[in-house]
Amino acid sequence: MDYTERLSNVTVLGAAGKMGSGILLLTSLEIADLMLKPENKDRHFVVNAVDVTSGALPGLMNYIRGQVLKAAEKKVVMLRKVYAGRKDLIENSDIIEAYINDVMNLIRPGTRIEAAYDSTLVFEAVSENAALKTKLFRQINENNPNKPWIFTNTSSVPIGGLDKDAGLEGRILGFHFYNPPAIQKLVELITIGTNPEGMKEFALQLAKNMRKVVVPSNDIAGFIGNGHFMRDALYALGEAGRLSAEMPLHEAIYAVNRVSQDYLMRPMGIFQLIDYVGVDVVRFIMNVMNPHMPGENLHSPVLDELFDKGVKGGQFSDGSQKDGFLKYEKGRPVAVYSIEKGDYAATEGFAAKADAWLGALPATAMPWKNLVKAADKDAMAALAFADYKKSGDTGASLALAYARRSREIGAKLVSDGVAHSAADVNTVLLTGFFHAYGPVNDFVL
Amino acid sequence: MIAGYNTISMGTGRKEFNPKKERPGLEHYMKEAGQATLAQIGGAGNVDEGVVGNFMASRFNKQAHLGAFMAMVDPGLRYKPSLRVEGACASGGLALVSGIKSVLSGSAEVVLAMGVEVQNTVKAIYGADILAGAGWFPRRKDGHAYFFPGQFSDRAGAYYEKIGRDKARKAMARWYRNAIENARLCPTAQEFENKTADLEAQGLMEPNPKSFTDHLNVFDCSKVSDGASTIAIVSEEGLKRCGVALKDAVEVVGVGHAADDITALPDDLTRLNTIAYAAKEALKSAGITVDQLATVETHDCFSIAGILGMEAIGLAAEGKGADFVLEGNTARDGKIPVNTTGGLIGWGHPTGATGVHQAVTIWEQLTGKAGAAQITIPSDRPYGLTVNMGGDDRTVVAIVFKKTV
């Protein structure tokens, strides 16, 4: 089965979710490119968009339509050539509309797993529940005569276990997009030894056509991305707990969040990132990973407490941020959750005090949005860390300790055999988390 | 002509411009420009006729019938004759020609001439469809997604063949630099706030055929602009009626107006023959030679159009336009300053307004009202020329102006 044939009937499971919708979009655009090639004009292509939440499907289709419109507007120079033979399509607007219709006509939204029984490729983006994934894969495998390849978007569940439990005979690999898939450049690729011939090559070609940067990861729970993120988050939670001896926990959370954003020059603070991913999701991923991590305890009682109180973060369907560790107004944090009080404490009530406690941020600590545009980001970041080392301020000391722990986590991913190299770890953090510099850097020492 | 006025050329580059927010429409620009000119000529009561140059409000704004907007500008214009004229990007020039003819015919002593276009209502990729209306529609299907950049890219490609790509690209980058440096001197220019240090390096950016055209980059192109310009066209009697001093007027001494077959392809991609014809007619009717011009406003919808325009007007010999520009002749301190407030690339190109904007710029320069952009007008060369082009060299209006005092 060649590349085009493999993509002739694709199912995306969990298509209405945050990740699934992006995967559906990218897959549909790639298949449309194939479909519109003259040599494929007699071939039939289908993308099944399957999600159990029926009510989410109309919104999903609207999202896809809007995104395909944007994609069409960007590549109309090429599309005019693709549709050169259609005499009825004259203006750019005609061509863009035709392209949208062609892409949308590929997609069959529905709620039934049976749609995947004819597929040659299945993308899976359901929740991080190994038992659920296994059940779905087994059901498809037993009912689909095509022996479909399964690309799971799992960010934490070992692939080998899923393969064995679902009886897939190696026809599964990890193809882990980052959120949002349409924007983030990174795909973590997790192959297993029993993958059939050509499966990895197909995955690499697909990722290339989707203009993704591929980083290989070994099949160890959490892989590189969550392997770093979960430990980074646990460190931050531990730091906040330690500092709570000197101040209320919510103020300590504010301080650590600020250090991880402003001092480490990251796109957002660690607690904002946990909220973005979802307090519940982070907790769940830790629970998935923990049994596979002997000698470590990937668990946080604080996450349990927030989860039990219904403080979960994540996003609303329009993409706006739900409250989690932090409370948001117009996307900006304005308060921090106080576990003792069971309510949010406005940052304006304590930020000045906490900021004074941290000390002045050195001028060399550039805002992330400036640093990420700099020509030599590592050199610029190194200047800030050089100043932290000279400074006796609390904020600088916390930042150094934080960055060193981040580096240690990255180095351990290599020594544990999760990542092939420190460069791969850095690439994941640069492209999947939008960091301006990789964690495995000597300037933080 | 007297009492010129330009609104800001609004679009990308202006800090006030936010494509995500609601923006002023045709009415805003027409009122601002129209009322500013009326205030300089003693009010609407002194106006006999109105004429509006506009290209494609019918698509950009879903609005036709622009002649009837004059009475909105000022109630004093109600029931006075007013019309809208169209000749693609030469619509503004046609508004001037229409007004000049009314005055010459004796049917009016004072004509309020306006040009207006509001184009930022759609994304550029859809605007390209609308602007393609300046070409022959049956040719649209085979044209580029960005239709007119595609047309002038073909001209640039032919010019590269003729004189060498390297020299041509350098001259086009110099044209861009001159345009932006001049625009920085004019507060209404779209590129007034441009802070780029090395403009020629920017202008030399390699064209990317995958996302744009084969031979032009975005810096070779004029702006997508919203704006309006007005000027009053008056007889000697009209000048007295408006109470404007002679020193504040410029005299129209020559007009060339030509149109070529829109369904035909250019005879030679490296020549702008209609511009050549109209400019020659304008100079002939003015009774002057090109050497007597102090300044020129030419239609640089693309840098290559500016360079080819230098040859067509007769300022440079055929094939020598690039050298003429590279030698510094068109810079504001050169032999003949061209597009002294930035032209279409630097000041902006609200298509239907451009012809009037060019006249206002020449009026400002010849009456000493150009502010920081003011150039010296030599006493032995008291003339300025405007060249306003519609489509790919299909409709051209060229006008020669003379300093009065």
Written account of the structure:
The complex is a heterodimer of chains A (445) and B (405). The longest helix of chain A has 22 residues, at 394-415. Chain A is globular and about 70 Å long. In chain A, strand 6 and strand 7 form a beta hairpin. Chain A is built from 18 helices and eleven strands. Chain A has two domains: 3-216, Rossmann fold (3-Layer(aba) Sandwich); 225-444, Orthogonal Bundle (N-(1-d-carboxylethyl)-l-norvaline Dehydrogenase, domain 2), CATH 1.10.1040.10. The mean pLDDT of chain A is 96. Chain A has an eight-stranded mixed beta sheet, with helices on both faces. Chain A has a three-stranded antiparallel beta sheet with strand order 9-10-11. Chain A has 445 residues and is of the alpha/beta class. With 405 residues, chain B is α/β, with parallel strands linked by helices. Chain B folds into two domains: 2-122 and 224-247, Thiolase/Chalcone synthase (Peroxisomal Thiolase, Chain A, domain 1); 134-222 and 250-403, Peroxisomal Thiolase, Chain A, domain 1, CATH 3.40.47. Chain B is 35% helix and 16% strand. Chain B contains 14 helices and nine strands. Chain B has helices at 26-40, 57-60, 70-73, 91-105, 124-131, 147-163, 165-183, 199-203, 236-242, 273-286, 303-313, 321-326, 343-346, 354-366; strands at 2-6, 49-53, 82-85, 110-118, 226-234, 250-259, 293-297, 383-390, 395-403. Chain B has a five-stranded mixed beta sheet, with helices on both faces. Chain B has a four-stranded mixed beta sheet with strand order 6-9-8-7. In chain B, strand 8 and strand 9 form a beta hairpin. The chains are: A alpha/beta (445), B alpha/beta (405). The A-B interface holds A 73-74, 76-80, 87, 89-93, 96 and B 123, 125-126, 128-129, 132, 137, 140-141, 144-146, 209-212.
CATH class annotation of the largest domain in chain A: Mainly Alpha
Oligomer: heterodimer
Largest protein-protein interface: A-B, 14 and 16 residues
- For the residues shown, what is the average pLDDT of chain B? 98
CATH superfamily name of the largest domain in chain A? Answer: N-(1-d-carboxylethyl)-l-norvaline Dehydrogenase, domain 2
Would you tell me the overall average pLDDT of chain A? 96
Could you name the CATH topology of the largest domain in chain A? N-(1-d-carboxylethyl)-l-norvaline Dehydrogenase, domain 2
The total count of strands of chain B amounts to 9
Strand/helix succession of chain B: EHEHHEHEHHHHEHEHEHHHHEE
Main sheet properties of chain B: 5 strands, mixed
CATH superfamily of the largest domain in chain B, by name, is Thiolase/Chalcone synthase
Rg of chain B is 19 Å
The N- and C-terminal alpha carbons of chain B lie at a distance of: 14 Å
Query: What do we call the CATH topology of the largest domain in chain B?
Result: Peroxisomal Thiolase, Chain A, domain 1
* Percent of residues in helices of chain B: 25-40%
Strand order of the largest sheet of chain B: 1-5-4-2-3
Shape of chain B: globular
Q: How many beta-strand elements of chain A?
A: 11
Domain count of chain B = 2
Secondary-structure element order of chain A, N to C = HEHEHHHEEHEHEEHEHHHHHEEEHHHHH
Morphology call of chain A: globular
